[in-house]
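Feature request disguised as a bug report, sorry. It would help if multi-protein outputs had a clear separator. Right now it looks like this:
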Amino acid sequence: MQRVLSFQMARGLSESSEFVTKRMCFSFLFSIGFICILCGFLLGRFTTQRTIESHAEKKRLEFAGNGLESTEYLQHLLLVQLESASLLDADFEMNWESFNLRDDAVHRVRGILSNMSLIHRVVVHPSCIFANTRGSREPDRYVVVSAGGEGVGIVLELAKIMNDIQRKHGWRPRRSLIFCLILGSSDPCSEILSKDTFVHSRVTAYIVVHHRALQGNGPFIASGSDIVQSVVLEAASIVNNVDFRNNQLISLNNISYNSTTSRLALDIPHAVLSFTNNGITFDETDDKRKWRKIILAQILSQTVWRLSECLIMKWNPSHFNKTVSKALESVDNTKFLTNIDKIQETSVKLLNNVEILNGMIDAIDSTNILDTRILNDLTMDLDRALLCSDAKHRSRTDWVEFFRLDHESFNIILTHLDEISKCYETAVQVLQNK
C-alpha cells in the first residue's frame, strides 16, 4: 500500500520530494480501526439502552392499572361477546335446571370442557365436575367459580369465550381458575376443596352462582366476605356503566337489609351472586329473564377477570363502612351503647390501617413479585379475619344474620355484638403485624 501511494504522489507532484511512509499508512489504518471500534461500541450501547428501555416500557404497560390496563380491551371483548351469547350459543340458553347425574349431561359438559385448550384438567366427581386452568404467574393461587342450574350455562359460556381469547390473543390468567359445575341443587364444591388443604389454604376467592340466582325479579345483589364482595360490586359498576339499561337491575346493594342473603358457611373469602326477590308478582317476559342472565354473566366475567388478573388485591372499604354504619344505627342505643361505641372505635381503627395498607400498595414496585405476593396474602388473611368463622364455618360478622336477631333476648344480641367487636380487633391485629 505504501509503494502504491508513494508512486501516485510522485506522479501528481512534479517537484515534491515527500512520499507516504509506512508509519503514515499504519496510522491511517489504526485511525480507521479505532473509529470502527468506537462506532461499534456506541451502536451496541445504543442498542442495549433501547432494549432496556423497551423492556421497561413493556413492563410498565403490563403493570399499568394494577395489571388490568394492558388487557382492558379483552375485558371489553368479554362483555360484548357475553351480550351476544343468547344469539350465538345454544349452551348458554339451554335450560340447565335439568343438569343432573344423567350420563348424557355429564358426558356433554365434560366434552365441552375437555376440548378447550385453556382447560388443563377435567375431573368428574359423583356430584360435580371440576375443570382447572393453570395460572401463568401464580399457579398456586386459585379463583374458584361454583355454579349450578342456569349458572352452568353461564360458566360454560364464560369458559368458551376465555378459551377463544386465549387461542387468538395468547392470553392466560395470572392465577389459576377452577370451574366447579354442580350436578344437582346442593353445592359440594367447597367440601371437596376442603379435603385438599394445599388448595383450600390458597383460594383467593370462591364465587358462587347457585341454581336459584335468576329466580329473583329484583335488583342484583352480592353477599359474602367483605373484600371479595367489594370486588363483585366494582365489577357490577363496570357492567352498569357499559349499558344504561342495567340501571333497573343493578342497585349495588343499596336496598334494605331484610332482602339480602347471608354469607355462606365457608371459612374462605367468597361471594354469592344473585338477584333479589322484591316480593312483586307479575308476568315476566323471556326477554327480561334473558337480560338478567346476560347481566349476571357479565358481572361474573368481570369479577373473575379482576380476581385472576390484578397484581394486588386492593380493598375499597366504602361498602363495609356503609354497612357497619347502617347496622349500628338500627341498634337500640340505650341498651347497647357501650357495645356500639366499641365497634365504632374498632372499625375506625380498622379503616385507618386499611388506608395505610392501600398506601403501601400504591407505593410498591409492582415488578417485585415477592412483595406483591406478600401483600396479596395479607389481604387474603384480612378477609378471612373479617369473616371470623366459628367452628361450623358460620361468619360471626355477618350483619344480615344480626338483623334476624330482632326478637332474640338481650343476652344473645349482646353476645353477638361482643363477637363482632372481637373479630374486628383481630382484623386490626392482622394489619398491625404486617
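(second protein starts here, but nothing in the output says so)
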Amino acid sequence: MILEHYDDISVVVATKFMKYSGLWMAANRVEQIYRYISLIYSISTTFFIGSIVTIEFYYTKNDFTNCLFNASNILTVFMPLFKLLVLFAHKDDFFNLILYLKRKFLHSNYDLYEGMILDTSKRTCAFFVCTFTCCCHATIVNYIISAIVVNIGRNESDRVLPFNIRSNVLSMTPYFEIVFVLQSLSVYQIGILYFSFDNFMCIMNIHVAGQFRILQYRLENIKNAIKRSKKNGNSNATYYNTFKTYVAQHQELIAYCDKLEETFSLYTLGQVLLFSLLICLDGYLILAVSIRQNTDTHPAKRLIFVFHMIASVAQLFMFTYSCDCLIQDSTNVATAMYSAPWSCLAMNEDTRTLRRDLTLVIVRSRVSCCLTGYGFFTVSLETYTKVLSTAASYFTLLRQNNAATP
C-alpha cells in the first residue's frame, strides 16, 4: 500500500521531498527504478560536493575563518548522508511506521473532540514542516545567489564557484557555467536530504502524541459507555470490555514508540552531536570581522550563515519539541486513567480485576515513551537548551582563540 491521498499539507510536502531523496516506497517496477536512480543521484551529489569542500578545507587549514567556513560545509554536506544511510538500513521499519501512521492515525473514525485533537496535530506539523522547509530553501538559494553576487564585476579568469575548486581552467567559459550548474543542482539535492527525513520524524512524533491525547480523552469519558450499556443491565462487563479496548490501543501506541526509538536512535544521536557545532560555526561566521576582508568569504555569503543558523535552530526546536510532546502526552495517560469513573462501579470479581489492571496501566504510563540518542540521553526541550548552551560555549572559545591569534 502506498500513500497517495492526503488531507494533511505536512504529509504532502514531506512525501514530495522524500520521493526526490530516493528513500520512498514504490508501487511498481518503474517507480522502483526511479527510486534507485534518485538514491544514487543523492549519494553521488553528496560525495561530489563533499570531496570539493574536504579538499578546500585542507588547503585553507592555515586560514582560521576559511577553515571554519569549510568545516561548516563539511558537516552540512555529510550529515544528510549519515541520515540517509541510517534510515536506509531501517527502511522497512521506516516505511511500516509511515503506513501505520496513515491507516491508524490519519484515517480513523473520530468523534468531534477527537477530530479537533487530530486537526491540532496537523496544524502543528504543517507549521513546523513548512517553516523548516522554507528556511532550508532560503539557505540553498543563498548558496547560489551569493556566488553570483561575488562574481559581479569580475573578469573570466577571476570568477569563483559556489564551492571553490582550485583550477584555472574551470573559471573559463563554458567550463565555469557547466560546473556552476552541477554544483547548484548538487546543493539543492543535499538540501532536500537535509530536511526531508526530519520532517517525517516530526510528523510521526506529533501525531503519536496526539493519539495519546485522544486515548486520554477516551479514558476520561469511558462513563459514556456505561450509560449506553445500562439499558442492558450489564454495565460492569461493558465497562471492562471497553477498558480492555483502550488498553490494547495503549499497547499499540507503546509498540509504535518502541519502533520509532529503534529506527531513529542512532539518527538522533548524530543530530544532537552535530547541532551544537553547526550553530556555533554559523554564529561565528556571521560575526567574524575578517569575513569582509577575504575574497573567498565575501560579505554576501554571510546571508548563507544567517539562514543556515535560523534553519538549524528551527530544526533543533522542531526535533526536540516533537520528542517532548511524546514524553508529556504518554505520561499523562496515567492521570487520565486515574480520572476515569472506575469508582462508580460496584465491587465484584469483574471490577476487582479491572482495578488491578488499571493499576498496572498507571504504573506503566509513568515510564514515558521517548526518543533517545542511542540510549545515552533522552531528547526533550531540555536538550534544546543544553545544545544552545553548548553552542554558546564553543562560540566563546572560538572568539577568544581568534582574538588571541596575532
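Even a blank line would do. Unrelated, but nice: The chain has twelve helices and no strands.
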